[in-house]
Design brief:
Blueprint lengths: L1 H6 L25 H10 L5 E3 L12 H4 L12 E3 L4 H14 L3 E4 L16 E4 L6 E5 L4 E5 L4 H8 L4 E2 L12 H7 L6 H4 L2 H4 E7 L5 E4 L13 H4 L8 E8 L1 E2 L3 E9 L5 H12 L3 E8 H9 L16 E9 L2 H17 L7 E4 L3 H12 L1 H8 L1 E8 L5 H14 L8 E9 L4 E8 L4 H7 L2 H8 L24 H14 L13
Parallel strand pairs: 2-4, 3-4
Antiparallel strand pairs: 1-2, 5-6, 6-10, 7-11, 8-9, 8-10, 12-14, 12-15, 13-14, 13-17, 16-18, 17-18
Helix pairs in contact: 2-4, 11-14
Bound molecules: flavin-adenine dinucleotide (FAD).
Flavin-adenine dinucleotide (FAD) binds next to strand 3, helix 6, strand 10 and helix 14.
Pfam families: FAD-oxidase_C (PF02913), FAD_binding_4 (PF01565)
Catalytic activity: (R)-lactate + 2 Fe(III)-[cytochrome c] = 2 Fe(II)-[cytochrome c] + pyruvate + 2 H(+)
Keywords: FAD, Flavoprotein, Oxidoreductase
Length: 508
């Protein structure tokens, strides 16, 4: 529950400029005591947290809901509702639509673009009380679950049935499947299992007028016209509230293995990826890039099992390779011969490699990769750019950003401390993190639009997997054409004419 603990931190030192202006929320109303009286007819008192109610909730209890995981975005909501059923969600939404009250759907609040917290005092609708598995069929592998199920709990649920969720990410102890779907989360298994646009089979969604759209089918094939569910995957709560998810779970691999490779220079990553794909072929399930600076931060903050310092002297970056297959001996043999051929090559692509030899070591190597986001957040305030660029540009993006900040005299202890890169090589997804002593207007002005222009110059995407949220609404045009944005706005207006659903997010 690491993310929860961080999310609970009270925020006092953040500059006021991070409270967004009311401009995006024109025409919406605040929750009143009359609204609360209505909600009390729908929900038990234990499902209502409000600083407005007669037995007012202390505002400190609302802080974890109003502040995001990074302590960067801060809302001022007076009211959090925690419905237990789709019917309750529907009744709340119908009332809010009539009263024109903005709603922010909230899952585990681990999102990294400020999408899950209010801009002002919108009502927060938390899915935390909707956390039941509805059904699982171990023949087809189809899992149907409430949107509020925590990703790790679904993983635990499926384990005895020899299946896994086709999605894994560092925030799995807190994020919810509804939040994953709503952000179209990518994560660590995308290379093997593809995106949620493929593995989600159906959704149940409460639309902005309160109507329940039941598309919770569990069919692998269904070509009956427009595939509406796709609109809600990655909509970040702007088109409706996901209340149920049907997803195709994957058979659990019989054997998983991993190896951490240290590379003398970044230029070796691309040839290494080619070689690893060639040798491991069908058992390759992850290929994750970690630059030296962020590796050192992970080690400093005790994430995972560090490699022997002597062995990695001079290493410029690291790659974590995972295999998942049906036969342990066969996979181990493949990994061993890969390592051997890499080490014995005339011009070795790697300095060294550490192969996990037990489940504990396997987890410890993954913990380095999964702990990077947290290590960065312990080091300072991170500006996070989650971008898609060609693989051979990963290091160039990091280096150019660092040089740019240096040229602005912002690269020192009191401003930007580190510029680091890590990410999912197989998906062309780089996490560029600029770690600063504090969030300041100067640093932000130096980074934006610089980073977005750089990404656009490679015809990349300004958001590979974290979404747009409130952070990147103004930058959407770097990755979407005016025609695309116009049609996105038309779709939003069609579903949500009153603009109550997660106002101020995604669209400029
Ligand atoms: C340590 C860490 C590691 C991460 N690693 C990855 C990674 O590898 N890959 C990746 O893609 N992301 C990653 N993320 C970010 C990722 O987007 C989120 O962790 C996750 O997908 C969001 O789920 P959540 O339940 O926390 O949603 P929240 O943060 O609560 O919400 C995110 C957005 O979805 C909306 N939303 C939430 N639930 C619903 C719902 N039921 N219906 C409609 N809208 C809803 C919210 O309004 C908001 O716009 C990471 C985050 C952390 C903190």
């Amino acid at each position: 529950m690491l993310s929860r603990q961080l999310a609970r931190r009270v925020v006092l030192r953040v500059p006021r400029r991070w409270s967004h202006s009311p401009a995006g929320l024109t025409g919406l109303n605040s929750v009143t005591e009359e609204d609360l009286a209505h909600f009390a007819k729908i929900l038990p008192s234990s499902s209502i947290l409000s600083t407005l109610s007669p037995s007012a909730t202390p505002s400190s209890e609302l802080e974890p809901f109003n502040n995001d995981w990074m302590d960067k975005y801060h809302g001022k909501s007076t009211t959090v509702l925690k419905p237990r059923t789709t019917q309750e969600v529907s009744e709340i939404v119908r009332w809010c639509n009539q009263r024109k009250i903005g709603i922010v759907p909230q899952g585990g609040n681990t999102g990294l673009v400020g999408g899950g917290v209010p801009i002002q005092d919108e009502l927060i609708l938390s899915l935390a009380n909707m956390a039941k598995v509805r059904s699982f069929d171990d023949v087809s592998g189809i899992l149907v679950a409430d949107a509020g199920c925590i990703l790790q709990s679904l993983t635990d649920y499926l384990a005895p049935h020899h299946h896994i969720v086709p999605l894994d990410l560092g925030a799995k102890g807190s994020c919810q499947i509804g939040g994953n779907v709503s952000t179209n989360a990518g994560g660590l298994r995308l290379l093997r299992y593809g995106s949620l646009h493929g593995s989600v089979l159906g959704l149940e969604v409460v639309l902005p007028d309160g109507t329940v759209l039941d598309q919770l089918t569990s069919l692998r094939k269904d070509n009956t016209g427009y595939d509406l569910k796709q609109l809600f995957i990655g909509a970040e709560g702007t088109l409706g509230i996901v209340t149920g998810v049907s997803i195709l779970a994957a058979p659990a691999p019989q054997a998983s293995n991993n190896v951490m490779l240290a590379l003398p220079k970044f230029e070796n990553v691309q040839p290494l990826y080619k070689e690893v794909k060639r040798q491991l072929s069908e058992v390759l399930s992850a290929f994750e890039f970690i630059d030296r600076t962020v590796y050192d931060l992970a080690v400093k903050h005790g994430q995972g099992r560090a490699l022997n310092p002597q062995d990695i002297e001079g290493a410029e970056c690291f790659v974590l390779v995972e295999t998942s297959g049906g036969n342990r001996e066969h996979d181990e043999q493949k990994l061993n011969s890969l390592l051997e051929s890499l080490m014995l090559a005339e011009e070795p692509l790697i300095n060294t490699g550490v192969l996990a030899s037990s489940p504990a070591q396997f987890s410890a190597l993954w913990a380095i990769r999964e702990g990077l986001t947290e290590a960065v957040s312990k080091e300072g305030k991170a500006y996070k750019y989650d971008i898609s660029v060609p693989l051979n540009k990963f290091q160039e993006v990091v280096d150019k950003t660092r040089e740019h900040l240096r040229s602005k005299d912002l690269l020192h202890e009191n401003a930007v401390k580190y510029v680091v890169g890590y990410g999912h090589v197989g998906d062309g997804n780089l996490h560029l993190n600029v770690v600063a002593a504090a969030y300041t207007p100067e640093i932000e002005a130096a980074l934006e639009p610089f980073v977005y222009e750089l990404v656009a110059s490679y015809r990349g995407s300004i958001s590979a997997e974290h979404g747009i949220g409130v952070m990147k609404t103004h930058a959407l045009q770097y990755s979407k054409s005016p025609t695309s944005i116009e049609w996105m706005k038309k779709i939003k207006a069609l579903f949500d004419p009153n603009g109550i659903m997660n106002p101020g997010k995604v669209l400029p």
